Amino acid sequence: MMLKKPKAVLFDLDGTLIDSEWFYYKAWKAVLATYGFILESELWLTSLAGKTDVQAIDVLQKQYNFQPDVNEFLSKVKSKVAQQYDEELVPLMPGAKELISYLHKEEIVIALVTSSKREVAIYYLEAHDLMKYFRRLVTRTEVKNTKPHPEPYLMCVEQLGVDKQDCLVLEDSVTGTTAAKAAGLMCWGVQTHESIRQSLLVDRMFDNLHQVLEGFLAVS
Predict the structure, then answer these.
(1) What are the tens digits of pLDDT across the range 26-72?
(2) Partner residues linked to 171 by β-bridges
């Protein structure tokens, strides 16, 4: 629960702020198919989404005995993603602009904590004209340990100069929520898939960012 407004809101990127999980799913599914591996959406959502490329391939290697040349495989994924970049802009999640506009109006600090590379995060924020709202960006480029390790969130809180109890994290995955809670932060889950919702250890759960905004308005 939240009895007062936070001073800072820390957004995850993929699947929370932008609707990128299906974008990357399409790329991984297409490349894996060339290896004879059929990637089901449930496996993607429950085990791979929210992870870095290296973490995701590690899951496939250890749990499904998928043993490609890793560098070659990830190079193919990167090429497929680049092709999709040229073909489409990944949309924002429903309610994203409205929530960010509200937080900005209320002078609540906004930051981004993501396992994506810094240039990727900047690309998305600039493409959607949101970069100006974000006080800090912590990406996998800056950290030694990515989510689910708490380092990214701890780094962001330190950079913002805000007390932990005054911060709120918005996350959609087990990887992200684990990192947020390990950092000692309040975390709201934003997720529609029931199988994932049941796995998230969060303080509150929402279907979308429209509902998150309603949660803020309730404590106005």
Answers:
(1) 999 999 999 999 999 989 988 898 788 999 999 999 999 999 999 99
(2) 189
